Amino acid sequence: MKNWRTLFTSVSLIAFASGASAAELNIYAWSGEVPQEIVDDFAKETGITVTFDTYDSNETMMAKLSAGASGYDLIEPSQYTVQVLAKQGLLKELDHTKIPNLGNLGAPFREVSFDPGQKWSVPYIWGTTGFAYNEDCVKTPPTSWKALWDPQYEGRIYMLDNMLAAYIAGLQVNGFKAGTTNAEEIEKATQSLIEQKKVLGGYNSTNFGDLVASGEACIVQGWNGSIAQVMATNPNVKYVIPDEGGSMWIDGFAIPASAKNVEEAYKFIDYIMRPEVAAKAADLSKSATVIDEAKALLPKEVAENAAIYPPEDKLMKADFILDVGDATKLYQDGWTKVKTAQ
Amino acid sequence: MTAARRGNLVTLALLAPSLLSAILLLVIPILIVIAFSFAEQDTYGGAKFGFTLTSYRELFQSIYLPIFVNSLQLAAVSTLVCLLVGYPIAYFIALRAGRYAGILLALLLIPFWIDFIVRMSAWMVLLGRNGTINSALLGLGFIEQPIRMIGTYPAVLVGMLYAFLPTTVLPIHAALNGLDRRLLEAADDLGATPLQSFWRVTFPLSLPGVMAAILFVFVPAMGVYAIPVLLGGGKSIILGNLIVQLFLDFRNIPLGAAVSVVLLAISSVIIVCYMRVLRSVEEARA
After folding, report:
1. CB contact under 8 A, B247 and A197
2. Helices A58-66 and A79-87: angle between axes, nearest 10 degrees
3. I need a surface site. Which of A136, A158, A225, B161 has the fewest CB within 10 A?
4. Contact state of A325 with B43 under an 8 Å Cβ cutoff
5. Structure ipTM
6. Is B47 helix (H, G, I), strand (E, B) or coil?
7. Which CATH superfamily is domain A19-126+249-303 in?
8. What sign has the CA pseudo-torsion A150, A178, A78, A72?
9. Which pLDDT tens digit goes with each residue over B166-179?
10. How many CA atoms does the CB half-sphere of A48 hold within 13 Å?
């Protein structure tokens, strides 16, 4: 009798598994933030066929979504991007009953200013925007954005090729807050960024970590995750949150309104919020997790890495960029001027 | 049905596949781009179809003008560099290489079977601070400090030269290859020095090839995107980069479409000029 039941269970399991193999999920996430291993583990566990693409700016992702059917079922926008996408009606309202692991979120991430009630997005990881330097080339440890204007590193300074990120440095070096909507402040920052071009090697938001690790660059503006990844193999690379503040960001998961495989998207969100999965993802991507229980599972060198978990006083000073609304145009015109200046 | 009409129908039937694909893959997309260039834009990146000249008005604002100047300048300098390097190569292959000509042409073309971005990444490795060229120069003791090459204008020109060399060499080679050698013998017999026979016989006869080469380099050079980013550090943007920036970074589809339309218009004007000049050259020869 018992054997019969086992046989019946395994037969139905096989039937279920073969049925599930038709399921698909198309993920579009920040490069370097969702490790391929996590995606593969998920695919193996659920039998869902996962297609995984990456981007290196929120704007690129938004452009694909607003151009119409993008084919993506799950995206990973940053905080201000959640606001913009929600305003455009490009996101699906989340059904919290489909994310049982939602309760695993750490206290600071349960109620976030950019998405009250977690209506549109669920935080995944957080981090900072600052800069990294290579000790082989930079002898006195810099603490200010001013180092990225220093002529002694001419040709070996790189800025993120990302409008809002570049303006964090441009605004803060002038003493203004990142994400301002004040036209005069933006204009001053534009002038500073134009002036900076004389000493720049270039703009890069894809492999800035490699640039500073290889010594091609002395100083690069960067997001901490990619920097912490190269720090793991090259101890000469140091990450700095500048005295002026830098910025803090939260990247989370959201489901586009045009998504076709919604159930699978929920499954992935819930999967990556399991403490052990979140810990593995945080360890591989060298990013800070939003799941408290996951942090406890992390190896010491990650959990105590100041590039990943900066001291509280640094975080208190960091700016948090929200949607700048109509000021977007001021930033865009300024950025075009910066990019065309000779 | 008359024979003439039947002939027309047969021609049409034979042309149908290419005509259809040209309409489907070329004409319709261009019409869509043109339609978008007249659309309206909202702050959050939506484009509403309509008829407004806002995008074109914005385009001729002063902040975009430097990009047009940069693009034309880069295209012109790249074309010149390609000609200076490509002409001697084409000349050698067509008139001096003899039975090795085929092999040389193949060597010129084979690298172009590899993906463009991969080849440009190879240049990043070559020109990098710890790259092949710097290591070699340092090892041989020619330099004390690595030379900075990535992120400079010359690096962009090297990339442009590399990318467009085959399109320069091939048309010039074709023109020189068809050259009637007896003309050169005649020039020689009549006492012309080698330099004189080059300037008065070979070069004028290769002009159609040179002009085709100019066209094949100048027009696509204005729209390149990857070379200024990968080798130039993205510090000097040209029209190709502006289009990407407008579509992807600024989500301003109408303005991006307007830039594309203007780029298309500039290219068309150049092609029309080319055809005019070519005709007058041919008429002068006849």
Report:
1. no
2. 20
3. A136
4. yes
5. 0.84
6. strand
7. Periplasmic binding protein-like II (3.40.190.10)
8. negative
9. 999 999 999 999 88
10. 24
Confidence bin at B1 (pLDDT 50/70/90): low
Domains of chain B: 64-285 (1.10.3720.10)
Assess contact for B90 and B209: CB atoms under 8 A. yes
- Model confidence pLDDT, tens digit, residues A224-258: 999 999 999 999 999 999 999 999 999 999 999 99
Closest CA to B180 of B97, B103, B94: B94
Over residues B18-73, the pLDDT tens digits come to: 999 999 999 999 999 999 999 887 766 677 778 888 889 888 877 888 899 999 99
Q: Does A328 touch chain B (CB under 8 A)?
A: yes
CB of A158 within 8 Å of any CB in chain B? yes
Going from the C-alpha of A165 to that of each of A122, A274, B49, B140, the distances in angstroms are: 22, 31, 32, 42
CATH domain A128-247+310-340 topology: D-Maltodextrin-Binding Protein; domain 2 (3.40.190)
Quote the minimal CA–CA distance from B26 to chain A in Å: 20
CATH 3.40.190.10 domain locations along chain A = 19-126+249-303, 128-247+310-340
Residue type, position A179, single letter: G
Q: Which pLDDT score, from 0 to 100, does residue B223 have? A: 86
Beta pairing partners, A25: A50
Q: Would the CB atoms of B43 and A328 count as touching at under 8 Å?
A: yes
Average pLDDT over residues B139-163: 92
Among A62, A333, A339, beta carbon nearest to B45: A62
Q: Which residues of chain B are at the A interface, by a Cβ-Cβ cutoff of 8 Å?
A: 43-46, 63-64, 66-67, 70, 128-130, 148, 150-152, 232-237, 241-242, 245, 247-253
Burial of residue A306 (number of CB atoms within 10 Å: 0-12, 13-18, 19+): middle
Secondary structure of chain A in HEC code, one letter for each residue = CHHHHHHHHHHHHHHHHHHHCCCEEEEEEECCCCCHHHHHHHHHHHCCEEEEEEECCHHHHHHHHHCCCCCCCEECCEHHHHHHHHHCCCECCCCHHHCHHHHHECHHHCCCCCCHHHCCCEEEEEEEEEEEEECCCCCCCCCCHHHHHCHHHCCCEEECCCHHHHHHHHHHCCCCCCCCCCHHHHHHHHHHHHHHHHHEEEECCCCHHHHHHHCCCCEEEEEHHHHHHHHCCCCCEEEECCCCCCEEEEEEEECECCCCCHHHHHHHHHHHCCHHHHHHHHHHHCCEECEHHHHHHCCHHHHCCCCCCCCHHHHHHCEECCCCHHHHHHHHHHHHHHHHCC
A 159-218 residues with CB < 8 A to B: 161, 163, 197, 200-204, 214-216
